[in-house]
Design brief:
With 291 residues, the chain is an alpha+beta fold. 51% of the residues lie in helices and 18% in strands. It has a 5-stranded antiparallel β-sheet, with no helix packed on it. Strands 6-8-7 form a 3-stranded antiparallel β-sheet, with helices on one face. About 3% of the residues have low confidence.
Length: 291
Amino acid sequence: MPFTSWSEFGTWLLGAPLLVVLTILLALVARWLAHRAIRGVVDNAVKRADEKRMNTGERLLGVDAERRRQRALTMGSLLKSVATFVIATIAVLTVMSLIGLPLGPLLASAGVGGVALGFGAQSLVKDFLSGIFMIVEDQYGVGDMIDTGEAVGVVEEVSLRVTRLRDLTGVVWFIRNGEIIRIGNQSQGWAMASIDLQVAATEKPSVVIPIIERVLEEYYADPEVKGKVLEPPTVGGVDSVAAGAMTIRVFAKCVPGQQWGVPRQIREKAKVAFDAEGIALPPVPFGPPPA
């Protein structure tokens, strides 16, 4: 027995071992409090973002719930991991100091190892940092149609290292976040559809434009359109006159993702109105002579 008496053993037990136990308990409590605080911060941040979007008149899509959920989970997971690592590191160093282990060589080795790891994993660190800023700034999320420069498609999954999206042909692209230089988000907030309606150049704009305006009013009044178009479509005017055709441009502020379907519907209704009013369409250009 290394102790000469039970009183000496009791004195030792109330010394370093008790401090080690208290350090571990304090670390666990600190971790629990940090995780609880992070949950509250993330939930409040997502709530404020949703309220801001609703106050600015932006309509929420069905995919927004999944986007918010994944963004909150990713941010919360990242912050919790960082908090756990910091608290665990402090606790381990404190315990080592209490039991008398030298910290100098360990810290020196950790510094050298960190430098070596930093040089060897530069691309990985770049991907993670880019992913962190992308999530914090809410550049895009699940369900968004984005243009990354390398591929254009709908985002299916967002992580700290890679972004997975599916293009219009069904191909799935895995793009490292650190390799994305710029992002074009076609699904954030609202989208503007530009529709060109062509009639014969011999038609008078003063006759054609009121017909188009009436078509747009009837289109916007349709109950099925309320969830697609945010504002009444407007006529921009005559855009060009060339090759026997007069082009009149129409603008429609749409819900993200509807900027491709709305122009098709407006063109269809405009064609019906032109036929009913006797508006001539542009002449068909002559093709190559038959062989």
